[in-house]
C-alpha cells in the first residue's frame, strides 16, 4: 500500500481513468446551474445529470472527475465522527451508455489493488452488493475476490424518484481489530452497523432501469442506454493511504488544525476530544470554497447555510478560548492545501478573507445583542421566582436572534438556571418539519428521450446569415419521426440554419420557413438544442413539409438585432461591474430579450446609487467610443491566455468563441453580437435589486427602450415643473425645495395654532368640574381630529389636579370616539367606558387608568355625557 499526499491521490485517480480513455471533467462550481432541486452541488454526478437523462450527449461517453461538493444534512455529526464533512471531494468515473458492469468492476479492482496504482492489500477489501444482482457477485469473483468478502445487502439499490436507477456495489476497506472494540467482525457489514473498522471508500451504481414510483422494482423497464455512476470519497481514501486514525489527521486538515493550535494556545490530541478543532477545520473549508464560487453568508438558502457554518465554527473557537475573529486567517491555509487542483482559492483569498472576517465581526455584535436579551429574560424569570429556562425561549434566541444554543445554556447555567432541553428539541423539530414541508421536491434525473438522443444528422448554425436555403433532415411530430407533415406543430432539424438556439442567456431566434416561391409554409416559435447539439426548430406548420426537401429559412431581423444590442451591452455591463464593484462581481445568470437585458451577479451588499451611476456612465463611455466588436474561434487554452472571462455555468468544448470589445472586454461567448458598440445607442439601468443571499440583479434597457425611459423621465419632470409653476426645468429642484420649506413652515404654524386652540379648549373644559357621590369629574364634548387628540387632552389632564375622572367625547367623521380616564381606585376607567359606550351604539374597554370606545351615533353624545354622573 502506497503512502501518498492528497494531491497525489487525486491525480492518480484522474491519470488512471485517462488510460481508460475517459474525458476529465473539471470540478464544477458549487452553485448548481439550472437545477432548482439542489441547494449545492452535492455529488460527483450532480453536474452530469444532463448526460444521464439524455438531454445532452457528451462528446466522450466516458467521463471522470474530482468534484468538490457540499452536504449539510448531518452537520451535527461533523467533528463527532471520523468521516463526516460538510465539504468534501468526490472522485468519480462515469459511463454514458458505453461500458457497464463487467468493465466497471474490473477497472475498480485494478485501480485499488494494482502495484502500479493504489496497491491496496486485496485481503483488506470487502464488497457489498444487491442480493438479486448475481452478475456483480460473479464479476467480483472473476477478479479473484474471496466469496467470504462479498456481502449481500438489500439497501444496495440506488434510486431517488423517477428516472435512472439500479443496483449498486460498495467497496469497503478493513482497518482491523483495533477499530472494532466489541470484536463484532464481519457482522458490522452484514448488519449495516455504523463503525470505524470497515470504511466505505467507493460506490459503483449500475444505472440500468427507469425507476417508476408506481411500480415494484421487478417491473422497472430497462434503460435504452445503461450507465455507470461511481463515487470515491477523497478524504476517506487519503486517510487510509496515510494511515490516519480519522480523516482529520491527514494533510487535508492537519495544517488547519496546527494553525488553530497556534491561535488558541490549546493542543490537538489525536486520542482525545478534539471536536472543536475538527469542526473549525471542516467548516472553514466549506466557507472558503463556497465564497470562492460566489455564495455569500445571508439569512436564507445557501447564505443561511454559510452563516450557520461560520457561527458554529466561531462558537467552537470560543470553546478553545478564541474571542477575536480568527477564521479568516485560515483561508490562505485552505488555499495552500488545495492549490494543486484549485488555484482559484489563493487567487481570490483576499476577497474571501474580507467576507469571512466581516461575517465574524457581525456575529460578534449578534452575540453582544443576544446576551443583552438573554439577561433580560433571565432577570424576568428571577423576579418571577423561576429557575428554569424554557425550551421555547432558547429556540427564540437561536431562531430570531441567531444566538448559539451552547452559549445560551452556558450563560443560563452560570446563573443557576436549569435548561429545558426537551422543549428546545421539540421546537427545533417543528422548525425542521416546516422546512421539509416547504422544501423543493425532486432531485431525480429526467427520463431519457430516446427519440431526441437518436438524432445524429449534422446541423450547422451559420452566425453570419439571417436567411439561407437548407435541407430538412429530421421532422418530429409528437416525439415520433415522420417523412412529411401537414398543419401541425412539429420539431425540425435542417442541415444548416440561421436560427440561433437559446443558450447562454440569449433567447432563441424566431422567423419563417418558405418554399422557393417565397410562400410561408411554417413559422418558427422556438429553437432549443438537441442532446447531440443540433438546433431543434419548434414550428407551427401551415403547409406540407417533407424530409429531404430544400426550404428557405429566414429569421426575424429586428428581433435578432435588438437581442444582439442587449447581449453586447451585457458584456459591457459585466466589465463595468468588475471595474466598479470588484472582480468578485461575477455573472450568476443573464437574459437578453428584445426589450431589455437582465443580469444577475454575485455581490455582498446593495449597489449604491453612486456606484450605479458610475456603472451606467462607464458602459455609455464604451458605446460612445464606438469600439469594434470582434469574434474569433480558438481553443480553450488560447482563449484563457487572452484573458477571456468564462461565463457562469457554461460548459466549453475544444473550440470556443471569444468576443472582444476593444481593449475593454474579453469573454467566452457563443451568442451573436453587434459589429460596433456605437450601434447600441444608449444604455440605461432601470432597477437594481437583491434576488437572494449574495446575488443582485440589474435590469437595463438599450437603444429605443432607453430613449423611451429617458423620455418618460423627462415627461414626469415637465409635469412636476408645471405643477410647481417652474417655467425652466433647470429650476424645478430649487422650486420644489422652496415649496417644501414653505410647507414645513406652514405645518409648524398650523401645529402651533392647533396647540393654542387645544389649550384654550382644554382650559374651558377643565374648568367645568362636577361632583357626584364624592367623586369629582369632568364630562365634555370636544373638537378632536382623531383619537390621538383625545389622548392628548387626557395627558394634559393628568398633569394637573383637575378632577378624579375625565370623560370626553368627539365626533370624528361620522363616528364617535369616547375616552374615560381615572385617577382614583374607586373608578375603573375600563368598566366605566363599557357602561357608557352602548349609549352611542358602540363598545370599548381598557385599563383602570384609561380606556376608549367607538360608536356610530353622534346624536347621542349629550345623553352619554349626562349619564356619567349616574354611572359614577
From TrEMBL:
Name of this protein: Alanine--tRNA ligase
Native source organism of the sequence: Streptococcus chenjunshii
Reaction(s) this enzyme catalyzes, per UniProt: tRNA(Ala) + L-alanine + ATP = L-alanyl-tRNA(Ala) + AMP + diphosphate
UniProt EC number: 6.1.1.7
Co-factor note (free text): Binds 1 zinc ion per subunit.
Family the entry assigns: Belongs to the class-II aminoacyl-tRNA synthetase family.
Top class in the EC scheme: ligase
Coiled-coil regions listed in the entry: 729-763
Amino acid at each position: 500500500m502506497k503512502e501518498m499526499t492528497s494531491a497525489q491521490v487525486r491525480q492518480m485517480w484522474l491519470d488512471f481513468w485517462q488510460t481508460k480513455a475517459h474525458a476529465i471533467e473539471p470540478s464544477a462550481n458549487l452553485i448548481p446551474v439550472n437545477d432548482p432541486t439542489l441547494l449545492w452541488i452535492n455529488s460527483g454526478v450532480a453536474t452530469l445529470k444532463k448526460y444521464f437523462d439524455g438531454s445532452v450527449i457528451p462528446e466522450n461517453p466516458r467521463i471522470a472527475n474530482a468534484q468538490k461538493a457540499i452536504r449539510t444534512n448531518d452537520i451535527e455529526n461533523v467533528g463527532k465522527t471520523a468521516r463526516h464533512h460538510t465539504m468534501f471531494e468526490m472522485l468519480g468515473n462515469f459511463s454514458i451508455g458505453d461500458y457497464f458492469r463487467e468493465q466497471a468492476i474490473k477497472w475498480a479492482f485494478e485501480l485499488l489493488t494494482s502495484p502500479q496504482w493504489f496497491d491496496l492489500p486485496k485481503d483488506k477489501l470487502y464488497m457489498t452488493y444487491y442480493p438479486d444482482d448475481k452478475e456483480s457477485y460473479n464479476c467480483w469473483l472473476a477478479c479473484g475476490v474471496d466469496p467470504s468478502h462479498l456481502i449481500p445487502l438489500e439497501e444496495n439499490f440506488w434510486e431517488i424518484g423517477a428516472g435512472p436507477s439500479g443496483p449498486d456495489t460498495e467497496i469497503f476497506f478493513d482497518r482491523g481489530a483495533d477499530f472494532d472494540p466489541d470484536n463484532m467482525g464481519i457482522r458490522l457489514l452484514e448488519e449495516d452497523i455504523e463503525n470505524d473498522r470497515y470504511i466505505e471508500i467507493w460506490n459503483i451504481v449500475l444505472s440500468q432501469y427507469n425507476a417508476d414510483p408506481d411500480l415494484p422494482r421487478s417491473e422497472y423497464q430497462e434503460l435504452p442506454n445503461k450507465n455507470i455512476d461511481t463515487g470515491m470519497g477523497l478524504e476517506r481514501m487519503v486517510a487510509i493511504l496515510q494511515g490516519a486514525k480519522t480523516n482529520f489527521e491527514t494533510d487535508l486538515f492537519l495544517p488547519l488544525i496546527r494553525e488553530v493550535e497556534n491561535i488558541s494556545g490549546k493542543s490537538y490530541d489525536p486520542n482525545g476530544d478534539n471536536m472543536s478543532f475538527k469542526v473549525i477545520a471542516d467548516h472553514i473549508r466549506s466557507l472558503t470554497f463556497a465564497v470562492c464560487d460566489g455564495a455569500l453568508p445571508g439569512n436564507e438558502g445557501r447564505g443561511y447555510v454559510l452563516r450557520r457554518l461560520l457561527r458554529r465554527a466561531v462558537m467552537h473557537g470560543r470553546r478553545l478560548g478564541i474571542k477575536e475573529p480568527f477564521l479568516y486567517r485560515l483561508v490562505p491555509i485552505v488555499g495552500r492545501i488545495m492549490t494543486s487542483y484549485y488555484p482559484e482559492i489563493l487567487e481570490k483569498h483576499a476577497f474571501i478573507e474580507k467576507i469571512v472576517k466581516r461575517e465574524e465581526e457581525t456575529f460578534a455584535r449578534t452575540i453582544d445583542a443576544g446576551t443583552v436579551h438573554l439577561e433580560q429574560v433571565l432577570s424576568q424569570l428571577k423576579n418571577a421566582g423561576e429557575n428554569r429556562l424554557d425550551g421555547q425561549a432558547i429556540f427564540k434566541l437561536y431562531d430570531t436572534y441567531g444566538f448559539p444554543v451552547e452559549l445560551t445554556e452556558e450563560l443560563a447555567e452560570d446563573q443557576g438556571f436549569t435548561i429545558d432541553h426537551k422543549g428546545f428539541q421539540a421546537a427545533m423539530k417543528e422548525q425542521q418539519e416546516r422546512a421539509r414541508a416547504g422544501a423543493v421536491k425532486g432531485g431525480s434525473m429526467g427520463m431519457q428521450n430516446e427519440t431526441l438522443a437518436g438524432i445524429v444528422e449534422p446541423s450547422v448554425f451559420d452566425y453570419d446569415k439571417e436567411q439561407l436555403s437548407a435541407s430538412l433532415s429530421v421532422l418530429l411530430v409528437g416525439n415520433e419521426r415522420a417523412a412529411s407533415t401537414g398543419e401541425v406543430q412539429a420539431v425540425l432539424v435542417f442541415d444548416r440554419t440561421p436560427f440561433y438556439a437559446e443558450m447562454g442567456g440569449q433567447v432563441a431566434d424566431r422567423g419563417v420557413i418558405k418554399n422557393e416561391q417565397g410562400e410561408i409554409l411554417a413559422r418558427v416559435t422556438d429553437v432549443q438544442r438537441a442532446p447531440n447539439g443540433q438546433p431543434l426548430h419548434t414550428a407551427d406548420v401551415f403547409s406540407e413539409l417533407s424530409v429531404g426537401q430544400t426550404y428557405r429559412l429566414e429569421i426575424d431581423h429586428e428581433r435578432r438585432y435588438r437581442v444582439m444590442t442587449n447581449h453586447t451591452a451585457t458584456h459591457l455591463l459585466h466589465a463595468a461591474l468588475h471595474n466598479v464593484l470588484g472582480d468578485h462581481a461575477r455573472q450568476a445568470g443573464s437574459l437578453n430579450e428584445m426589450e431589455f437585458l437582465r443580469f444577475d451577479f454575485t455581490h455582498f451588499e446593495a449597489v449604491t446609487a453612486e456606484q450605479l451611476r458610475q456603472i451606467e456612465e462607464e458602459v455609455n463611455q464604451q458605446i460612445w467610443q464606438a469600439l469594434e466588436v470582434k469574434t474569433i474561434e480558438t481553443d480553450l487554452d488560447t482563449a484563457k491566455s487572452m484573458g477571456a472571462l468564462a461565463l457562469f455555468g457554461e460548459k466549453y468544448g475544444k473550440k470556443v468563441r471569444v468576443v472582444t470589445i476593444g481593449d475593454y472586454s474579453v469573454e467566452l461567448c457563443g451568442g451573436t453580437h453587434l459589429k460596433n458598440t456605437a450601434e447600441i445607442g444608449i444604455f440605461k439601468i432601470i432597477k437594481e435589486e437583491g434576488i437572494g443571499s449574495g446575488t443582485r440583479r440589474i435590469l437595463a434597457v438599450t437603444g429605443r427602450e432607453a430613449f423611451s425611459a429617458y423620455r418618460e423621465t423627462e415627461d414626469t419632470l415637465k409635469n412636476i415643473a408645471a405643477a410647481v409653476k417652474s417655467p425652466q426645468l433647470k429650476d424645478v429642484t430649487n422650486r420644489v425645495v422652496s415649496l417644501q420649506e414653505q410647507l414645513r413652515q406652514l405645518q409648524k404654524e398650523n401645529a402651533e395654532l392647533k396647540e393654542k386652540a387645544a389649550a384654550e379648549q382644554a382650559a374651558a373644559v377643565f374648568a367645568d368640574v362636577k361632583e357626584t357621590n364624592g367623586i369629582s369629574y369632568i364630562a365634555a364634548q370636544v373638537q378632536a381630529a382623531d383619537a390621538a387628540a383625545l389622548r392628548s387632552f387626557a395627558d394634559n389632564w393628568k398633569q394637573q389636579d383637575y378632577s378624579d375622572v375625565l370623560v370626553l367625547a368627539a365626533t370624528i367623521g361620522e363616528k364617535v370616539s369616547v375616552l374615560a380616564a381615572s385617577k382614583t381606585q374607586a373608578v375603573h376607567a375600563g368598566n366605566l367606558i363599557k357602561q357608557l359606550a352602548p349609549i352611542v351604539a358602540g363598545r370599548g374597554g381598557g385599563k383602570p387608568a384609561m380606556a376608549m370606545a367607538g360608536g356610530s351615533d353622534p346624536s347621542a353624545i349629550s345623553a352619554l355625557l349626562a349619564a356619567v354622573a349616574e354611572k359614577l
